């Protein structure tokens, strides 16, 4: 197991502990929770061309159609406000998930772990493709692949996103930024290297703030 696998495994353990703790006090805090079918993320009512494409990519990957999953993933417009389908557990905000009845939260946890693992696997595979493109001196393809992984990490790392997604998102961003940094060092593109280094600093600052928030520190 390499360091990235260990990092993702640690993310899963941290999230499991956090969820067990939150569920323990859930009944006192949310006596009248909503069901997942009743909860909608702000802006989810507006249909967009890319709505649900991340779900579609993950579904294809889970079904074994890796090439099609990657094709859909690379075509996603990450500037869109909706990457998940309406009703998807991953479309919920952390606050909305917390409003669900304790029993429904617990029932959804296996699905959340499965989907987060799929996101991780897909991202790692696209990074692998990017490294292969780079080795073949297909720099444009490599740049597109690394950037898609970075953008997906940013997309699921919004302040209101599920805490589980944010943890996975930070790990994915770090993975993509590291590969981009190595690519621009190798190609000597100082301008893009500087941008990646700045993005890394911003990501690390956001991750630090998130960890502080999760630990309850001010």
Q: Which labels suit this protein?
A:
single chain; mainly alpha
Number of extended strands: 0
Instruction: Please give the largest β-sheet.
Output: none
Distance between the termini: 35 Å
Give the DSSP E fraction (strand runs of 2 or more residues): under 5%
Domains, number: 1
Helix content: over 70%
Order of helices and strands: HHHHHHHHH
Question: Mean pLDDT, as a whole number?
Answer: 81
In the predicted model, the low-confidence regions spanning at least 5 consecutive residues are 6-47
Number of helices: 9
Rg from Cα: 18 Å
Shape: globular
Decide which structural class fits the backbone: mainly alpha
What does this entry show, briefly?
With 218 residues, this protein is mainly alpha-helical.
Provide structural commentary.
The chain contains nine helices and no strands. Helix 1 runs antiparallel to helix 6 and helix 3 packs antiparallel against helix 4. The chain is 70% helix and 0% strand. The protein has one domain. It starts with a helix and ends with a helix. It is mainly alpha-helical. The chain is globular and about 55 Å long.
Describe the secondary structure blueprint for this structure.
Layout: H1 3-24, H2 26-29, H3 53-62, H4 66-75, H5 94-98, H6 102-135, H7 139-155, H8 163-187, H9 190-215
